[in-house]
Amino acid sequence: MLRPAPRRTRRVQRRQQTLAGYALLAPSMIGVLGFLLAPVLIVIVLSLFDWKLLSTPEFIGLANYRELLNDDDVWHSFLVTLYYVLICVPGTTILSLLLALLVNRKLRGMKYFRALLVIPWMATPVAMGLVWTWIFDPGRGALNQFLGLFGLDGPAWLSSPLLAMPSVAAVHIWQFAGYNMLFFLAGLQNIPASLREASSLDGASPVAHFFAVTLPLLRPTMLFVLITNVIGSFQAFDTIFVMTEGGPGDSTEVATYLIYDEAFRKFDFGYASTISVLLFAVILVVTISQFVYFERRTTYDFS
Amino acid sequence: MSHPLSRRTLLLGAAGLAGLTACGSSTDKTSSGGKTELVYRLWDEQQEVGYKAVFAAFTAENPDITVRMEVLPWDQYWTKLTTELAGGKAPDVFWLTVENFPDLAGKGVLAPLDDVIARAGIKLDSYHPNVVQSYKFEDKQLGLPKDLGVVGLLYNKSLVAKAGITMPSELTWAPDGSGNFLEIARKLTAGDKQWGFCSWNHSQTQWLNWIASNGGRAMDKPYGTFDFAGPKSVEALQWARDLIFKWRVSPDGTRTNPPTGQATEMFYRGEVAMFPANNALLPFALPEVKFPIGVAALPAGPSGRTVVINGLAEVMFARTKHPEEAGKLIAFLGSEKAQKLMGDAGYVIPALNDAGAGYAAYWKQKGIDVQPFIDSAAGSTVNMPIAEGWTAKVAEINKAMNDVYLDKTSVSGIAGTLDKIGNER
Question: What InterPro entries does this protein map onto (chain B) (predicted)?
Fold first, then answer.
């Protein structure tokens, strides 16, 4: 009896394995293709059309993009978005790192404390937005009532053009600091304890140790946290939608809100798609530059 | 959104699922055994209760047709409706406002009702002419008048009594601050915790009325030209601002400007004594307040009293699967029987002339005399302005108007911006 050539068997086996691999991937690939890639392509196509939802779509080439260039509202919304990102990303990163340092100690009940800090992230952003709207209420909100205890007359947080953005951003920071803390915590626990001993033998103060040893070794975590946070802040929508609807005036009208407004209030789907493509491009460029910047400075090897 | 990718995907998946189930539910609700179910869409959960009786009466007359109501919150109402209309699967019969009419009228999504009206023997001149006219497009009647939303002045009877004031039957205002309205507002203002009035950015109940009763107009005719910068309009807008910053009888825009402001809530809480409102607010206000509500007509200006009417209409989806049944429903909703059912239960002032007696009787029994609303509707009225591409423009105009209620840029400058937005082609 002849046995099949061993090489062929291996090839068949390999092909079977590949097929099995794809089969296992299929469910998530369908998700990625159907719910991420397809909409992205559709949006790019739609951005070339004049489509007011109830009118028939009409191909207009790059006219939407030309309109975009001269649209002050769009540029304003990107500046507002940038402002939001510039508050949220450093805020969230620093706060979560501090929290991670704080809870990275062996104390009784520490795990409950850690869990407590993650709860804001588990809650629905819309529900949290509502709760914070009540807290920020100028007349009866908890915050101004609290300030009132000290004889302070709290401002109208969400209806002041100056304060609305920091207030909304504060909620974002509050919401995601605990969650990002988890990554820093994991990062901290990956750093071998021997390094701490070594640096203290060399006479490094805790602060010096942090900046010279801990922080550089946290770079992989930092890369991840920064990138997901930048993307997340660029895409922030739900809390702003609930708390200020882009107002007062257009002081919190971030790009995502403008897109929503164009698409679902004004039903100008073509133009809304154009702004979406721009936002997509901006996030892509920012993310790639972050990767490039960190690539050169990151070590993954702690030994 | 932290781990944005995963949550986003989840959300998208959820939205997709919701979309699928939504498609399944609001379409093809058809005949099983000769029976038809019509879908009726509205946004007012108070009126939903009233409509149960109306539809019970309808099904009693038409045993083969039942009606299912879908109530959506205001914002979602328009988003969902418009996307559904575009997708070709919309509710059979739904509510429409004057402001949203222009964006749907020319798009072939609303069925002309002239045949329905003729077949049912309905006389259009027996409805309030303002509402009939509002839903006419190119000589076709696209909406059957449902009710009148009239603006009147609600006031907090406790605060008025405490200040020792008897509300005069006629209030007057003028841009220079003369007239008894301002006098009363000042008496009702106490420090910065209680205001006599609330001057805030709300077109229907506030600035459109000031402009009209000052002899100006926001727009010359439907689909016409905006004239916010006209001298009478600017004067009226300045007056709206003066009530806050000059006469100090109203909280300012930082507390009242939409979307974050809380003007209505301030009235509910008793922080504002006089508050102009559409009569449709009454069923919502009553459970919220701890004081008796009084009603007066809006103050008359230099050109007398002119109030905004925002009458709603019932419209029919042009591509409904059941045009005949939906037509019957529309005709029934326009009938005296249906309009009186809603009026007598205190929900609305029917658009049908002389059907409002029951409405007044209902509110009288609740201790509120709504006659000023009904009288105002019979007097001089003005419509909300409409223009081509209105939903986009009205959002911009309302946003720009916020500045009137903040003391930063000049009112004439703002008025110029408003005209520019409104008259843009």
Answer: Bact_solute-bd_prot1, SBP, TAT_signal
Q: Which residue has the tokens 């299912």?
A: B68
Q: Are residues B264 and B275 in the same domain?
A: yes
Long-range CB contacts for residues B114-119, cutoff 8 Å, separation at least 24: B114/B140, B114/B141, B115/B327, B116/B144, B116/B316, B116/B327, B116/B330, B116/B331, B117/B141, B117/B144, B117/B331, B117/B334, B119/B327, B119/B331
Distance CA B1, CA B7 (A): 7
Q: CATH no. for residue B242?
A: 3.40.190.10
Facing A159 at nearest CB: one of B86, B257, B269: B257
Residue B56 lies in a domain: yes
Looking at the structure, do residues B159 and B291 belong to the same domain, yes or no? yes
**Chain A residues in contact with B269 (beta carbon < 8 A):** 139
Q: Same structural domain for residues B281 and B405?
A: yes
**B330 close to B111: Cβ distance less than 8 angstroms:** no
Ordered structural domains, chain A, with CATH: 71-295 (1.10.3720.10)
Same domain? B123 vs B233: no
Residues spanned by the domain of B126 = 30-149+311-355
Place of tokens 């911006």: B417
B392 to chain A: which residues are within 8 Å by CB?
265-268
**Residue B42 and residue B115 in one domain:** yes
Residue A245: list chain B partners with CB under 8 A: 259-260
Per-residue pLDDT tens digits for A9-35: 788 888 888 899 888 988 888 888 888
Q: What is the Cα A169 distance to its own chain's centre?
A: 12
Q: Is A101 on the interface with B (CB under 8 A)?
A: no
**pLDDT of res. B339:** 95
Domain end (from B336, B355, B374): B355
DSSP string over B152-174: EEEEEHHHHHHTT----S--B--
Residue B110 in contact with residue B142, Cβ under 8 Å?
Answer: yes
| pLDDT tens-digit series, residues B212-228 | 999 999 998 888 899 99
Question: CB contact, 8 Å: A192 with chain B?
Answer: no
My answer on whether B139 and B251 are in the same domain is no
Query: Which of A53, A247, A250 is nearest residue B260 as measured by Cβ atoms?
Result: A247
Rounded Cα gap, residues A275 and A234, in angstroms? 13
Give the model's confidence band at B91: pLDDT under 50 very low, under 70 low, under 90 confident, else very high.
very high
- What whole-number distance in Å separates Cα of residue B320 and Cα of residue B65? 14
Nearest CA-CA distance, residue A125 and chain B, Å: 9
Looking at the structure, tell me whether residues B342 and B391 fall in a common domain.
no
What mean pLDDT, rounded, does chain B reach? 89
- Residue B139 above 60 pLDDT? yes
Q: Using 50, 70 and 90 to split pLDDT, how confident is the model at A266?
A: confident
Q: Is B94 helix (H, G, I), strand (E, B) or coil?
A: strand
B69 in the same domain as B56: yes
